[in-house]
TrEMBL record:
The keyword Transport applies. One of its GO terms (molecular function) is nuclear localization sequence binding. SMART domains: ARM. It comes from Gossypium hirsutum. One of its GO terms (cellular component) is nucleus. GO terms for biological process: NLS-bearing protein import into nucleus. It comes from the Eukaryota. Belongs to the importin alpha family. This is Importin subunit alpha-4-like.
Length: 199
């Protein structure tokens, strides 16, 4: 897959990559062996076409939703910093930021405690907190679930005091979660998180 100038061709290629990422590990490994992560990261770092960036984030999100092994490969390929940048960059369409946040939230939801620690150290709590009030439920719900996984991991890793609650508090995460209590889709989850972890 070369980075081509024709956005429509790149979109079709990315859709195919995303479909392969839904397949078996051996197919995914063939793409990895042929440098797919390098090329995806290059699009994230240098792309300007919103549609292409969204498709790239979506393909990565498919992989981070799979399992810890695939999440580790994404981390090892240094893609997380690019997703973090896109999830917060005001110079990109809001949909690009949402899709990047979804890829991060999937990694937090499916990752091991050590992978979650890596994500937190990289700075993923801020974007997840920023996007839990997003009007697009395909973004807000995964971001809330990602924060829930981070809080659970913090509870296990820090037995005396969950340090992740402090970071979430710094980003007004609990204040934002509080606003979700009346939401018919996620109000109950928000209320349980506040009751268990809210400071």
């Amino acid at each position: 897959m070369q980075i081509l100038s024709d956005g429509k061709i790149v979109e079709h290629v990315l859709r195919t990559v995303g479909n392969i990422f839904k397949g078996v590990d051996s197919q995914i490994q063939i793409l990895i062996n042929n440098g797919v992560f390098f090329r995806l990261n290059a699009i994230l770092m240098h792309g300007s076409n919103s549609s292409v960036l969204r498709k790239t984030c979506s393909a990565i999100s498919t992989l981070t939703a799979r399992d810890r092994n695939q999440i580790q490969k994404i981390m090892d390929a240094h893609i997380i910093p690019s997703l973090l940048y896109l999830s917060q960059a005001d110079n990109y369409d809001v949909e690009v930021r949402w899709d990047a946040a979804c890829a991060l939230s999937n990694a937090a939801r499916r990752g091991s405690n050590e992978q979650i620690r890596f994500l937190v150290n990289q700075g993923c709590i801020g974007p997840l907190c920023d996007h839990i009030l997003c009007p697009d439920r395909k973004t807000s719900i995964p971001c809330l679930k990602g924060l829930k996984s981070i809080l659970k991991a913090g509870e296990i890793m820090y037995s005396t005091r969950n340090l992740y609650t402090l970071v979430i508090t710094d980003f007004d995460g609990f204040g934002k979660i509080e606003k979700l209590q009346s939401d018919p889709d996620i109000g109950e989850m928000a209320m349980k998180l506040l009751m268990k972890y809210g400071v």
